[in-house]
Amino acid sequence: MLDVAQYLSVGKTAEVRKMISEEDTVGNSSPALNQLLSTPACVSLMVRATMEAVEGDLPEGYITVGKSLWINHLMPTLMGTSISVRATLTEISGNRLVVDVVATDSLGEVFNGRTERVVVNRIGLMDRAAERARELKEFRDRQ
User: Fold this and answer.
1) Interval 95-107: pLDDT, tens
2) What are the tens digits of pLDDT across the range 1-50?
3) For 41-77, how does the pLDDT look when each residue is reduced to its tens digit (9 = 90+)?
4) How many CB atoms are closer than 10 A to CB 16?
5) Average pLDDT across the chain, whole number
6) Domain-by-domain residue ranges, the chain?
7) In what order do the strands lie in the sheet with 62-73?
8) Which residues, 6+ apart, have CB-to-CB distance to 6 below 8 Å?
């Protein structure tokens, strides 16, 4: 198994800046809120910042996959607002990574959260996914 601590260290950070656009709004699912940053867009920004913090330092063929996340969406944020999303690696345990994320605009915090990602070999992951697909097909064929 890969010794992740050889490649990453607690405290590593990355920051993503984004101007909230129409694609980031909740209007896609709720027209009454069509000018506001959506929680799903917050999650996407959280994942993007986290991946920028950790994936560039992993050896070739290794990636991270999401295991869990928690998010606290604190403030309504209008389309056109610039936000900064900062991800900080806070824990490494084997191949498990815990990352804290804080997003701010010019007035303060917009959302925060924590995500857990797992470092995996991409080819091994794809092999497991293909095996599961075969098992599902066999199961459906028996029905």
Assistant:
1) 999 999 999 999 9
2) 789 999 999 999 999 999 999 899 876 677 777 789 999 999 999 999 99
3) 999 999 999 999 999 999 999 999 999 999 999 999 9
4) 20
5) 94
6) 4-142
7) 13-19, 82-93, 96-105, 108-121, 62-73
8) none
The single residue listed with the structure tokens 């129409």 is: 22
- 79 C-beta neighbours (distance < 10 Å), count: 16
Which listed CATH number (3.30.70.1060, 3.10.129.10, 3.40.50.720, 3.40.50.10490) goes with 4-142?
3.10.129.10
Nearest to 112 by CA among 128, 90, 132: 90
Q: Which of 39, 13, 17, 32 is nearest to 100 (CA)?
A: 13
Give CA–CA dist 121/118, Å, rounded.
10
C-beta of residue 136 within 8 angstroms of C-beta of residue 77: no
- 121: its two tokens: 């070999």
Q: For residue 77, report the phi and psi dihedrals to the nearest 5 degrees.
A: -130, 120
